[in-house]
Amino acid sequence: MSALTVKRAAPASARTKRIAKAGAAVAIAGALTNALGYLVPVIGARQLSSADLSALATMAGLAAIASVPGLGLQIAIAVHRARNGAASTTRISLITAAVGAGGLLVLTPVLVPLLDLPVLYPLLAALATVPTVYAGRRLGEMQGDQRFLRLAAGMVVLAVGRYGGLVGALLVGAGLTESLIAGAVFAWVIPPALAVLCRSRKPHVADAIRGREILAACSATLAMLVISYADLLLARYLLTPDTSGAYSVGTVLTKGALWAPQVVTVLALPRLAQGSTRALRKALLLVAASGAVLVAASAVAGSFAFRVAGGASYAHLGRYAAVFAATGAVYALVFVLVNDRVAKRAKWAAAPVWVACGALIIVCEFIAPHTLTGVMWSALGAALLALALGAITGRSKR
């Protein structure tokens, strides 16, 4: 091997090591984030009644949907920064956080009777939404700059702030209301902690990010989160409290398969913003492989998975574990396609997802039986529809 070849190989090797190190850090942070999120229903299943468990799962779904602008903010800022360089993000971030919490407040009069919730619960979710959404500013800046080690630390800060108060209160035996209060108050540690972590001396060299960029990313992310939680909310609406509580345990597997490969999308997004089709192919391949492993594991050890997720009383539902995991695995692929379309500034990036979400609602309400399996199979069908539409529209744009 010539000296020139060695010199060229060294930087490539160093880059591979950096990517591997960054990927490992983000993967660990994502695993910790998911673990803390899973602790909420897992501990709740052991501390609360089935009715309160269903309410807790419903609140988790609402909080996740209300926090979607934060993920949209992160994606938009990361894409803008990867394309154009550093820009001012303070004002647009504050507005986005206010919109996220305000939307939940506006919908509270509808949510309370529809989902049979005390009025205090959506108000507490709105209180926690502000710092959770605003966190997207700092995370997006670090992601766009490809400072993945700091991003990983920021993900941990967000997870601890988002779930720490709620998990801690449940562990000491607090009731559902007290736990939700603790979670809402503790979430306010997030903004100052991220401000310290994300310190940067980069001057602003690009125009400020525009509202329509945030709106496009938020719309796409909202569609993804709505459809991934729609079956849980439909179960709460259509099924008995006990059955919807059991369904919420199954969705722990769905969320696991959905978020387990998130590291791939996090690392790929800056390159997707720069138009790399190779990055898209690799991302889809890695996410598909992750989903296949998780679905296979769920098929083999379904009862064990339900026992871990909700306790021994739910182990008899193990035969459905692979279906719940498959739904999450398919949604993970859809999430990659959605991020790619947002990064490439495609119009109506989330249209396939919204179509599938509408189909899910119609099928669950008017066609499928109002049973656990009826909602479960409808959710998998909606996921496959979203993937098919996303692949077709993505191909047509190339």
UniProtKB/TrEMBL annotation:
Membrane topology type: Multi-pass membrane protein
Keywords: Cell membrane, Membrane, Transmembrane, Transmembrane helix
Keyword Lyase among record annotations: no
Membrane spanning residue stretches: 53-80, 92-112, 118-136, 148-174, 180-198, 214-239, 245-272, 284-306, 318-338, 350-368, 374-392
Subcellular location, record wording: Cell membrane
Keyword set includes Phosphoprotein: no
Name of the protein in question: O-antigen/teichoic acid export membrane protein
Species whose genome carries this gene: Asanoa iriomotensis
